[in-house]
Amino acid sequence: MCEEPMIHPKLHKQFGWTAFGLLWLVAVVAGLVVVARYDNTAGVRAESRGQWPSESRLSHDASGPTLVMIAHPRCTCTRASLAELAEVMARVERRPRAYVVFVRPEALRASPEASDLWQRAAGIPGVTVVRDERGREAESFGAATSGQVFLYDAGGHLLFSGGTTGSRGHAGDNAGRATLVALLKNERAPQHESPVFGCSLFAPGDRPDIHDHDGHDLHLN
Hints:
Number of domains: 2
Shape: globular
Strand order of the largest sheet: 5-4-1-2-3-6
Number of strands: 6
Oligomer: single chain
CATH superfamily of the largest domain: Glutaredoxin
Order of helices and strands: HEHEHEHEEHE
Number of helices: 5
CATH topology of the largest domain: Glutaredoxin
Structural class: alpha/beta
Strand content: 15-25%
Distance between the termini: 89 Å
Protein backbone atom coordinates (compact mmCIF):
# COMPACT_ATOMS: atom_id res chain seq x y z
CA MET A 1 0.00 0.00 0.00
CA CYS A 2 1.37 3.40 -0.99
CA GLU A 3 1.65 5.95 1.77
CA GLU A 4 0.39 9.53 1.14
CA PRO A 5 3.18 12.08 1.29
CA MET A 6 3.12 14.11 4.49
CA ILE A 7 2.80 17.89 4.22
CA HIS A 8 5.19 19.75 6.44
CA PRO A 9 3.30 21.73 9.15
CA LYS A 10 5.01 24.97 8.10
CA LEU A 11 3.92 24.51 4.50
CA HIS A 12 0.38 23.72 5.62
CA LYS A 13 0.27 26.93 7.68
CA GLN A 14 1.74 28.97 4.83
CA PHE A 15 -0.89 27.61 2.45
CA GLY A 16 -3.62 28.59 4.90
CA TRP A 17 -2.38 32.19 5.15
CA THR A 18 -2.04 32.42 1.39
CA ALA A 19 -5.62 31.25 0.89
CA PHE A 20 -6.81 33.71 3.54
CA GLY A 21 -4.95 36.55 1.82
CA LEU A 22 -6.50 35.72 -1.53
CA LEU A 23 -9.99 35.61 -0.06
CA TRP A 24 -9.41 38.94 1.68
CA LEU A 25 -8.19 40.50 -1.58
CA VAL A 26 -11.24 39.22 -3.45
CA ALA A 27 -13.52 40.64 -0.76
CA VAL A 28 -11.81 44.04 -0.90
CA VAL A 29 -12.04 44.22 -4.69
CA ALA A 30 -15.70 43.19 -4.61
CA GLY A 31 -16.40 45.85 -1.99
CA LEU A 32 -14.70 48.54 -4.08
CA VAL A 33 -16.76 47.51 -7.10
CA VAL A 34 -19.98 47.77 -5.09
CA VAL A 35 -19.01 51.20 -3.73
CA ALA A 36 -18.02 52.49 -7.18
CA ARG A 37 -21.27 51.22 -8.66
CA TYR A 38 -23.27 52.93 -5.89
CA ASP A 39 -21.34 56.21 -6.27
CA ASN A 40 -22.10 56.29 -9.98
CA THR A 41 -25.76 55.25 -9.78
CA ALA A 42 -28.00 58.27 -10.24
CA GLY A 43 -31.20 58.83 -8.29
CA VAL A 44 -34.70 59.04 -9.74
CA ARG A 45 -35.10 61.87 -12.23
CA ALA A 46 -37.56 64.66 -11.54
CA GLU A 47 -40.94 64.68 -13.21
CA SER A 48 -40.27 68.09 -14.73
CA ARG A 49 -43.33 70.16 -15.58
CA GLY A 50 -41.53 72.51 -17.98
CA GLN A 51 -43.06 75.54 -16.28
CA TRP A 52 -42.91 77.08 -12.81
CA PRO A 53 -45.49 75.13 -10.77
CA SER A 54 -48.57 77.22 -10.05
CA GLU A 55 -49.09 75.46 -6.70
CA SER A 56 -45.64 76.46 -5.41
CA ARG A 57 -45.61 79.00 -2.60
CA LEU A 58 -42.07 80.11 -3.39
CA SER A 59 -41.71 83.52 -5.02
CA HIS A 60 -40.61 83.36 -8.65
CA ASP A 61 -38.45 86.24 -9.95
CA ALA A 62 -40.20 87.85 -12.90
CA SER A 63 -37.13 89.94 -13.74
CA GLY A 64 -34.48 87.20 -13.84
CA PRO A 65 -33.71 83.52 -13.32
CA THR A 66 -34.84 81.55 -10.28
CA LEU A 67 -32.98 78.52 -9.02
CA VAL A 68 -34.46 75.89 -6.70
CA MET A 69 -32.58 73.01 -5.08
CA ILE A 70 -34.64 70.36 -3.27
CA ALA A 71 -32.79 68.48 -0.52
CA HIS A 72 -33.20 66.03 2.33
CA PRO A 73 -31.60 67.18 5.62
CA ARG A 74 -30.10 63.73 6.29
CA CYS A 75 -28.61 63.00 2.87
CA THR A 76 -24.82 63.03 3.20
CA CYS A 77 -24.46 63.12 -0.59
CA THR A 78 -26.03 66.59 -0.53
CA ARG A 79 -22.95 68.12 1.10
CA ALA A 80 -21.19 67.92 -2.26
CA SER A 81 -24.29 69.23 -4.06
CA LEU A 82 -24.32 72.29 -1.79
CA ALA A 83 -20.60 72.83 -2.30
CA GLU A 84 -21.18 72.86 -6.06
CA LEU A 85 -24.13 75.22 -5.68
CA ALA A 86 -21.85 77.61 -3.75
CA GLU A 87 -19.38 77.37 -6.63
CA VAL A 88 -22.10 78.20 -9.14
CA MET A 89 -23.23 81.24 -7.14
CA ALA A 90 -19.64 82.46 -6.83
CA ARG A 91 -18.93 82.19 -10.57
CA VAL A 92 -21.76 84.38 -11.86
CA GLU A 93 -21.92 88.17 -11.71
CA ARG A 94 -25.68 88.34 -11.38
CA ARG A 95 -26.89 85.76 -8.95
CA PRO A 96 -30.30 84.21 -9.52
CA ARG A 97 -32.98 84.22 -6.89
CA ALA A 98 -32.03 80.96 -5.21
CA TYR A 99 -33.73 78.62 -2.77
CA VAL A 100 -32.59 75.47 -1.03
CA VAL A 101 -35.73 73.65 0.07
CA PHE A 102 -35.33 71.01 2.78
CA VAL A 103 -38.18 68.52 2.91
CA ARG A 104 -39.53 67.40 6.25
CA PRO A 105 -41.62 64.25 5.77
CA GLU A 106 -44.03 63.35 8.56
CA ALA A 107 -41.76 60.48 9.60
CA LEU A 108 -38.85 62.88 10.20
CA ARG A 109 -39.10 64.06 13.80
CA ALA A 110 -36.09 66.38 13.94
CA SER A 111 -36.32 69.84 12.43
CA PRO A 112 -34.18 70.37 9.30
CA GLU A 113 -32.75 73.53 10.90
CA ALA A 114 -30.82 71.29 13.29
CA SER A 115 -28.84 69.64 10.48
CA ASP A 116 -25.39 70.72 9.32
CA LEU A 117 -26.71 70.75 5.75
CA TRP A 118 -29.12 73.56 6.66
CA GLN A 119 -26.22 75.59 8.06
CA ARG A 120 -24.13 74.93 4.96
CA ALA A 121 -26.95 76.07 2.69
CA ALA A 122 -27.62 79.15 4.83
CA GLY A 123 -23.96 80.11 4.49
CA ILE A 124 -24.12 80.37 0.67
CA PRO A 125 -24.46 84.04 -0.34
CA GLY A 126 -27.70 84.77 -2.13
CA VAL A 127 -29.49 81.59 -1.00
CA THR A 128 -32.76 81.51 0.93
CA VAL A 129 -33.23 78.30 2.93
CA VAL A 130 -36.74 76.91 3.25
CA ARG A 131 -38.30 74.23 5.43
CA ASP A 132 -40.86 72.26 3.43
CA GLU A 133 -43.29 70.51 5.78
CA ARG A 134 -44.36 67.13 4.43
CA GLY A 135 -42.47 67.80 1.19
CA ARG A 136 -45.28 69.56 -0.62
CA GLU A 137 -42.98 71.99 -2.42
CA ALA A 138 -40.78 69.11 -3.51
CA GLU A 139 -43.82 67.33 -4.85
CA SER A 140 -45.07 70.42 -6.69
CA PHE A 141 -41.74 70.66 -8.54
CA GLY A 142 -41.72 66.93 -9.26
CA ALA A 143 -38.47 66.27 -7.35
CA ALA A 144 -37.64 62.76 -6.15
CA THR A 145 -33.92 62.86 -5.27
CA SER A 146 -31.98 65.04 -2.83
CA GLY A 147 -29.82 67.58 -4.66
CA GLN A 148 -32.29 68.06 -7.51
CA VAL A 149 -31.92 71.52 -9.06
CA PHE A 150 -34.34 73.44 -11.26
CA LEU A 151 -33.51 76.67 -13.07
CA TYR A 152 -36.27 78.84 -14.55
CA ASP A 153 -36.11 81.99 -16.64
CA ALA A 154 -37.99 85.20 -15.90
CA GLY A 155 -41.02 83.88 -17.74
CA GLY A 156 -41.15 80.74 -15.60
CA HIS A 157 -39.89 78.41 -18.33
CA LEU A 158 -37.69 75.53 -17.19
CA LEU A 159 -34.11 75.97 -18.40
CA PHE A 160 -32.38 73.17 -16.51
CA SER A 161 -33.26 70.11 -14.43
CA GLY A 162 -30.61 67.94 -12.82
CA GLY A 163 -27.85 67.68 -10.26
CA THR A 164 -24.69 69.63 -9.51
CA THR A 165 -22.30 66.69 -8.98
CA GLY A 166 -20.87 64.00 -11.25
CA SER A 167 -21.35 61.18 -8.73
CA ARG A 168 -22.61 60.61 -5.20
CA GLY A 169 -20.93 62.84 -2.64
CA HIS A 170 -18.10 63.93 -4.94
CA ALA A 171 -17.51 67.59 -5.79
CA GLY A 172 -15.56 68.69 -8.87
CA ASP A 173 -16.05 69.65 -12.50
CA ASN A 174 -19.21 68.13 -13.94
CA ALA A 175 -21.77 68.75 -16.67
CA GLY A 176 -24.54 69.91 -14.33
CA ARG A 177 -22.47 72.66 -12.75
CA ALA A 178 -21.06 73.74 -16.12
CA THR A 179 -24.56 73.97 -17.57
CA LEU A 180 -25.88 76.10 -14.72
CA VAL A 181 -22.95 78.51 -14.93
CA ALA A 182 -23.34 78.82 -18.71
CA LEU A 183 -27.08 79.47 -18.50
CA LEU A 184 -26.65 82.08 -15.76
CA LYS A 185 -24.01 83.84 -17.89
CA ASN A 186 -26.35 83.77 -20.90
CA GLU A 187 -23.92 81.50 -22.71
CA ARG A 188 -24.66 78.43 -24.79
CA ALA A 189 -25.24 75.49 -22.47
CA PRO A 190 -23.83 72.03 -23.31
CA GLN A 191 -27.10 70.40 -22.20
CA HIS A 192 -30.28 71.16 -20.29
CA GLU A 193 -30.45 68.24 -17.90
CA SER A 194 -28.10 66.01 -15.95
CA PRO A 195 -28.31 63.04 -13.55
CA VAL A 196 -28.95 63.68 -9.87
CA PHE A 197 -26.81 61.81 -7.35
CA GLY A 198 -28.40 61.72 -3.93
CA CYS A 199 -30.77 60.02 -1.51
CA SER A 200 -34.47 59.57 -2.09
CA LEU A 201 -36.56 62.45 -0.78
CA PHE A 202 -39.47 60.25 0.21
CA ALA A 203 -39.86 56.85 1.78
CA PRO A 204 -42.38 54.48 0.12
CA GLY A 205 -45.90 55.75 0.73
CA ASP A 206 -44.59 59.04 2.12
CA ARG A 207 -45.32 61.32 -0.82
CA PRO A 208 -47.66 64.21 0.12
CA ASP A 209 -50.93 65.42 -1.34
CA ILE A 210 -49.93 68.81 -2.73
CA HIS A 211 -53.55 69.93 -2.93
CA ASP A 212 -54.10 69.52 0.80
CA HIS A 213 -52.51 72.74 2.09
CA ASP A 214 -53.22 73.97 5.61
CA GLY A 215 -51.40 77.30 5.27
CA HIS A 216 -48.49 76.38 7.54
CA ASP A 217 -46.26 74.26 5.36
CA LEU A 218 -43.56 76.64 4.18
CA HIS A 219 -40.97 78.24 6.45
CA LEU A 220 -38.35 80.59 5.03
CA ASN A 221 -35.14 81.45 6.84
